[in-house]
Design goal:
Blueprint (H helix, E strand, L loop, with lengths): L6 E6 L3 H10 L5 E8 L12 E4 L9 E9 L3 H11 L5 E9 L12 E5 L1
Parallel strand pairs: 1-2, 1-4, 4-5, 5-6
Antiparallel strand pairs: 2-3
Length: 118
Amino acid sequence: LEGRSPVFIGVLKGCVFFFTDLTRRLRHSLEMDFIQVSSYGASTTSSGSVVLVKDITVDVRDRDVYLVEDIVDTGTTLTDVIRLIEARHPRSIQVVSLLSKPSRRQVEVEIAFLGMEI
């Protein structure tokens, strides 16, 4: 983070408490934003298709982006979020997640910073 102004993007709504705790402890200049997608609709199980509910407003072009999640489960929603951010040409994208459930993974997702596997 030294010498750069990274962008921390929280994936709503589950990340809110983790995102807040994490960004409060960082001592570097950073910009924050949020993105919200839905793959559940009215159901409690994923439909497999992601709808963008709230987009980011910050310009991420040529910036280091940290996507902050509470839990990476199947990986499908996060993969779609990564694609949405990649389309804006950031310098890099790294995933930060408090929890990961590798036994449920349907798509491989690289988690750069992980709290713990469950």
